[in-house]
Amino acid sequence: MTSPVVALRGVRKAFPTGTLALDGLDLSVNRGEFLSLVGPSGCGKSTALRLIAGLATPSAGAVVWGDDGGATRAPAPGDLGVVFQEPTLMPWATVAGNVRLPLRLTRRRSRLHGDEAEARVAAAIARVGLDGFAAAYPRELSGGMKMRAAIARALVTDPQLLLMDEPFAALDEITRFRLDNALSGLWQGLGTTVVFVTHSVFEAVYLSTRIVVMTPRPGRVAADVTIDAPFPRGETFRTSPEFASLCRTVGGALAEAMGEAFA
Ligand SMILES: Nc1ncnc2c1ncn2[C@@H]1O[C@H](COP(=O)(O)OP(=O)(O)OP(=O)(O)O)[C@@H](O)[C@H]1O
Question: Where would you find the membrane-spanning parts of this chain (predicted)?
């Protein structure tokens, strides 16, 4: 029996410009899963993520948290981690200073003492493979390292849900593969629920336990595909016939959603 962390129920989102981004979107995010959203450009993937993050509100329908039978209780600060395509680090602060920020914003609630907060920051930095860079400034880091710092910052509060909007899209392919591996390892180790937006069917299949394919705008669910290949999934999986077959299934569902034939 799966238990939802959050569900979008009959969600519609219309912007004041007249754009109808989402209409009739029903999507449950189950505890512990790695869920990817794929879909044509402009179908409302980021909008769906922003609604879950509480950065926007639905025009109709509801965002329902937990098993509370329909209450729309928003999560407490620190229960959510968000990572965008741009790492958005504070340039004047070190890696440790950037990673510490969410703890400073939520410390009163979590009553973390200074030492405990520092230990959490150090652990988060180590988790993403940035040992030795705690005192470095963002300008001293590569694009991949900046993204690792952004992930450490998102994970430092041990969120129950991690939302990621095309986090690796701007990185070169080798760095992207490395970060996919690092993220997959983190997810397996932490048991956090992840919702991940990507344009890459390959990346979605490699990382996910489930992929939701969305229709063109206004977005809703076109297909829901379970990816039940075992973890860890290294290069052996990436080059396997099973991987190729799953990519064909998801690619086919995407082409169908777009009303195209998939060769
Ligand atoms: N704040 C806004 N005001 C007006 N229109 C918006 C706003 N945010 C998004 N949109 C529009 O809503 C639609 C969905 O946008 P969204 O960014 O959610 O799509 P997406 O699937 O994430 O796109 P992409 O894959 O290209 O990143 C688009 O047509 C976009 O232009």
Answer: none
ipTM score here? Answer: 0.98
Q: Do the Cβ atoms of 25 and 48 come closer than 8 Å?
A: yes
Question: Which atom of ligand 1 approaches the CA of 50 most closely?
Answer: 18
Per-residue pLDDT tens over the stretch 37-91: 999 999 999 999 999 999 999 999 999 988 655 555 667 767 899 999 999 999 9
95, with CB counted inside 10 A (0-12, 13-18, 19+), is: buried
With the most atoms of ligand 1 within 8 angstroms of its CB, the residue from 11, 38, 46 to mutate is: 46
Task: Determine if ligand 1 sits within 6 Å of the CB of residue 10.
Answer: no
Cα 225 to ligand 1 centre (Å):
24
The 10s digit of each residue's pLDDT in 133-180 is 999 999 999 999 999 999 999 999 999 999 999 999 999 999 999 999
